[in-house]
Amino acid sequence: MNVRPLPELKPEQLASLLTASLTALYPSASVLGADLPLPAPHLLLQATDRLRLACYCQRMTATFLSDALQAFDELHDHRSWLRLLRPGQSIPDTLPLTLVLITPDPPPGLRLLEQCRPALELYRFRPLQIDEQATLILEPLFAATPLAPATPPPPVASPVSRHTPAELTAAEASFFNAINL
Hints:
- With about 180 residues, this protein is α/β, with parallel strands linked by helices.
- It is about 35% helix and about 25% strand.
């Protein structure tokens, strides 16, 4: 078996390979299209449990990240588009929407994205040629870089608990009894 990296792909090659890779990654999903009026190159997939908006790029740029987030927000806010643009398909309004970012390199702010967008999946792609077949390897980035578990702040001792002994001395007991506590 001969495996080697592919040079930069043409946009239509990338779209074709991504369609094949995403349908393999999400076997119950069907591709609804790549022609929605959204600001980022995309594929829209529908599975029984959710819609996935897969936005992709040849090179990671701040513009791509901004466009993908805007595309997610527009699709999330205007689900009625789908019924108008795909009249023959049943697309329930209740399906959750997930943004899938597919890039050759991790975006800046990866940890922040993971925390702020729970409905986000992020994959790094690697174009390879295996023998004579071109393919994409999709590597999940969130799984590869898990967040450190949040550690609670150390407890702050209150003035009472900091110096109160387990039992009161006789003088302290007498004082509290005198003030009727």
